[in-house]
Amino acid sequence: MPTNISVVSQTGGIKETTFVGVPVSPNRGDRHNEVDANNDLIMEWFWNGSLWLSRSLHQQSIHAWSGQGVLIGGVIGDVSSTTDNIPFSQGNDYDIYLYKIHGTFRVLSGNLSATNYWALQFRNTTSNLQSINITTGNGGEATDYICKSSNAINTKYTKLNTGFNIVFTKNGSAPNIRAPIASIQYRFSRT
Fold this sequence. Notes:
Layout: E1 3-8, E2 15-20, E3 31-35, E4 41-47, E5 52-54, E6 58-62, E7 78-79, E8 83-88, E9 95-107, E10 117-123, E11 128-134, E12 145-149, E13 155-157, E14 164-171, E15 177-190
Parallel strand pairs: 2-3
Antiparallel strand pairs: 1-2, 3-4, 4-5, 5-15, 6-15, 7-15, 8-14, 9-12, 9-13, 9-15, 10-11, 10-14
């Protein structure tokens, strides 16, 4: 049987309940501490009304391109291929609740446009799950240094033994880019 520990939120005086052990009928905002056999904390969870989500919002950035001559942390080599997979190693222990994806790179020459752009895709091994078309940066810039973020996605994706990939895909006659970085923000999820 779960152990209840009541706490009062410091914002708005909303009463929240934290459980050690998974509650049978949680209420939105309830918390659950996952512990191991020694009662050491593994992960803190909250109930969003339909899923248990990790309280921590995680972020992972991927700087390396396989086969493109870009070193980890470096800016060597230009990227001009039509697609390249970047492995994302999380997602084998829990499902992923994807919050946002972000793409950053430098356009070498020319401009991005609605027909000539790079797409950043969050994928599993068989299909594209989320995508943003990088036709301009967050500030409307179409050349030089570009940073593009998705809107909030807030979607759960089931864990796979092979994990997930981030893919940059060239569309039309998009300009070559340098030093691409893909990052994702996510929570772990469980039902």
